[in-house]
Every structure is written in C-alpha cells, then in structure tokens.
Write a structure and sequence with these properties.
The chain is α/β, with parallel strands linked by helices and about 425 residues long. Helix content is about 40%, strand content about 15%. It contains 18 helices and 12 strands. The protein has a 7-stranded mixed β-sheet with strand order 1-7-6-5-4-2-3, sandwiched between helices. It has a 5-stranded mixed β-sheet with strand order 8-9-12-11-10. α7 links the parallel β4 and β5. The longest helix is centred in the C-terminal third of the chain and has 20 residues. The radius of gyration is 23 Å and the shape is globular. The termini are far apart. Bound molecules: pyridoxal-5'-phosphate. Pyridoxal-5'-phosphate binds next to α4 and α5.
Length: about 425
C-alpha cells in the first residue's frame, strides 16, 4: 500500500482487520468512545497484561486511535506512530522517552514557544538541560554544542516566526556520527510537503491540532518513528531500551528491535504520564488527514501569492516567507519542499505596535487568533502574544519586531485575502507612528 501516491495513501491507508462477514464493515473509522473493553475469555485478561494482546483500556490502546496512528505512520514514511492529546504532549513524550536526568538536548533557537518553555523551564527542573543554537545553518555550531551527555538534536522543519529551515540530511548525519537521535517537529510542513524520516531524521513530532486536523476543532499530537536504530551505540547511549524489564523480562529492544524507541514511548511513557487522546478527537483528526494534501497544496499556493503581493507593498518592511527568493533558506526550500512552501509566515510593517494593531483590527476575512494550519486564514501579533515573554533581544533573534504579524493562510480565494490585506494596509498606514522621545 505504501508504494501508492500520497493522496491515495491519505484516504486508503488504514489498519485492516481480516474480513469477518458477521462484522459490519463501516467505511468510516468507527469511534470506540469507551474507557475500556470487555475481555472475551477469562484468559484474555492475563494475555493482555502479560503480552499486551488485545484491547483493555483506552489509555493503553484504542482501535480508533490505532487507525489514525496507522495512517500517520504511512504518510510520514515511518514505521509506527503514537497519537497523543496535544502537540505539547507529543514533544514531551518523545523527549521523555529518550532522555533522563543529567542528559542534554541541542535545540534550534527557532522553535515553537511552548517547546522552548518545555526545554528551558520544565525539563530543566528534571535535570535535563538544553543548549539553543541560533545559527541553525552552521553545522559547526550544532556540533560544538554536543556534549557527551547529549541524546537529542531538536529542530523544526519550517519554523516560526522567520520561516527558517534546517538542513535535515546534514543534521541527521551529524546526529548519527554521535549515535544520537534527530527529532524534527514537522507541524508547519506536514508530511505532504516534507517527510523528515525519509531525509534521515529518527523521530517526527506533530501538533495534529494544526494542519493534520485542519478544521481547528480539536487538539492532538503525534510521534512518528523511523524504526531505525543504531544498534552499536544503543546500549551505551540509551540503556533503558536494552536493559531487561522488571522481573528479568526481555528488553524493549529484544522484543521489538528497531521499534524500541516508539515502543518505549507507547508502553512506558505515554500511559504513565497520561496524555491520552480522546477517541472522538482521534476520529476528527483522521477525518482531517484524508484531505491534507488538497488543503496544504491550496494553502501553499495562496501563501505564495499573498507573500509575493505583500513583498511588493511600500507599507511592508519585510516578508519572511521561505518561498520567496530573497529568504536566506530559499535554496533549501527548493531542494526539500518541491510541492509547496507551507502556509504560515510572518511579515513586518513599517511603523510600530499601533500600526500592527490598526492593521489587525481592520481585517475582516482573516480571523485574529492564536492558531495555525486552519482552513481559514488567521493572523496574530507575536510581540504582544506568543513572544511577549521574551526579551527584546530574544525576540529580534527569532525575527519578531513590534510591527511583525504572523499569518496562517487558509483555503479561501486568494483575491479575497489580498483585498482584505490591501484594505487593512491602507487603514494602518494612516495611523501616526509614535515619535521616540
Ligand atoms: C502548536 C504547536 C505545537 C504545540 O501543539 P499543541 O497541539 O498546541 O499542544 C508544537 N509545535 C508547533 C510547531 C506548533 O505549531
């Protein structure tokens, strides 16, 4: 099945059960909205607890959730996926499955603010430290940050706010020279635009709340694993995967081989920390995924049209869209994003925070909210919202200024989006700019 094209896989790739004529075969994924499952035979209970057979309790496994995991693994070109309650849960579970106290992460500076907070404020309290690399195209800067305790390199395929890309194959090579894992947050690109596992990354994480769902109705997250492990360094660097389990049972690696990383996350991290997705939310994410390619193709085309138009406007100081030739990572985009450059980007108005406010207030088609990847176009002023907790210098380092706005371009008619922006630019450019004292 996985040899078929992306759009075919997104609607047909689902877990199949051997046909039993007595079981109704619903074409849509059934929603198993249940906390638990009855054991058929008395011994099924012990078989579940002993060998993990069958379904027992939704925190451990649920057929609706499994169906979506199967599709996401197929679309990312991975071996297995794990669906979680949110993108934050996915990043947290992926990292806690790899790291323990005393260990270290090297992360791109250009990451989602929730990820930055998790690394800087939460994991640090568990004894896991992070070095942030701001010159993300400088491989030597990444390598210089790697310590003997480093177990993860972390980056986003397309990042906020300045649309920076990383050279995934080069970072994967670097990680593998050190025997460690490259984890890529692929939320902004989606597997339709780039499949990091095929470029050498080991683990992908997603906020499924964004493009995968696409309708903005639910939160969700996913981890997808390549199923590839460096067996020579595994026991030394990730001993929890090769050590025998409690009571001397075989290690995760002995049981599942290359799937040890995701099996550990599924068996020992997610069910203990507990960010289980609702089966209803899983169903809604699965419904969204069936139209992923159509939406992202249209959103990318609209975003390119809008970015090109904004770049030609005198009220606009800069447009950080990787699809434009002037963007510093455009060469990587041409190499790694052949099907489109994504829908989320930022641009900066001449003027100040008042100009930005007047602009947002004048928009009618764009919705003012903190979300992205929706079928509707959205706008946000990062300096006063998502990036408000950063210092001026930190904001400048990720390309957020007082006049910067982030947009997530939807599937509307591009002409209506441009009309809306044009009107808002006219209104905003009439606002007097505060004179610095
Ligand atoms: C939204 C987002 C997250 C967090 O996902 P939630 O579903 O909101 O928890 C992580 N990474 C990126 C890039 C995001 O955009």
């Amino acid at each position: 099945m996985s040899r078929r094209g992306f759009a075919t896989r997104q609607v047909h790739e689902r877990a199949r059960r051997d046909g039993d004529a007595r079981i109704a075969t619903s074409r849509a994924t059934p929603i198993y909205l249940t906390a638990g499952f009855e054991f058929g035979e008395y011994d099924d209970a012990a078989a579940h607890f002993g060998r993990g057979e069958g379904y027992a309790y939704t925190r451990i496994g649920n057929p609706t959730v499994d169906a979506v995991e199967h599709t996401l693994a197929a679309l990312e070109g991975g071996s297995q996926a794990l669906l979680l309650a949110s993108g934050q849960a996915a990043t947290t579970v992926a990292l806690l499955g790899l790291l323990e106290a005393g260990q270290h992460v090297v992360s791109s500076t250009h990451v989602y603010e929730g990820t930055r907070g998790l690394l800087r404020d939460n994991l640090s309290r568990l004894g896991i430290t992070t070095t942030f690399v701001s010159e993300i195209d400088d491989l030597e800067a990444w390598e210089a940050a790697i310590l003997p305790t480093t177990r993860v390199l972390f980056a986003e395929s397309i990042s906020n706010a300045s649309n920076r890309l990383v050279d995934i194959p080069a970072l994967a090579d670097l990680a593998h020279r050190h025997g460690i894992a490259l984890v890529i947050d692929n939320t902004f690109a989606t597997p339709y635009l780039v499949r990091p596992l095929e470029l050498g990354a080991d683990v992908v994480v997603h906020s499924a709340s964004k493009f995968l769902a696409g309708h903005g109705s639910v939160l969700g997250g996913a981890i997808v694993d390549s199923g590839r492990l460096d067996e020579t360094s595994l026991g030394r660097l990730y001993p929890h995967l090769t050590a025998p389990g409690r009571g001397g049972v075989p290690s995760v690696f002995e049981r599942v081989g290359g799937d040890a990383r995701i099996a550990y996350a599924r068996e020992a991290v997610a069910p203990r920390f507990g960010p289980t997705p609702s089966p209803l939310n899983a169903f809604l994410i699965g419904q969204g995924v069936e139209t992923l390619s159509l939406r992202v193709e249209r959103q990318s085309a609209n975003a390119l049209a809008v970015a090109q138009w904004l770049a030609g406007r005198p009220e606009v100081a800069s447009v950080d869209y990787v699809g434009l030739p002037a963007h510093r990572d455009h060469h990587l985009a041409l190499r790694d994003l052949p099907d489109g450059f994504g829908s989320v980007f930022s641009f900066t108005l001449h003027g100040d925070a008042d100009t930005a406010r007047a602009f947002v207030e004048a928009l009618e088609v764009f919705t003012h909210m903190t979300h992205l990847g929706d079928v509707r176009s959205l706008v946000l002023h990062p300096a006063s919202t998502s990036h408000a907790a950063l210092t001026d210098a930190e904001r400048a380092a990720v390309g957020v200024h007082d006049g910067t706005l982030r947009v997530s371009i939807g599937i509307e008619d591009a002409a209506d989006l441009i009309d809306d922006l044009s009107h808002a630019l006219t209104v905003a450019s009439d606002v007097p700019v505060a004179v610095l004292a």
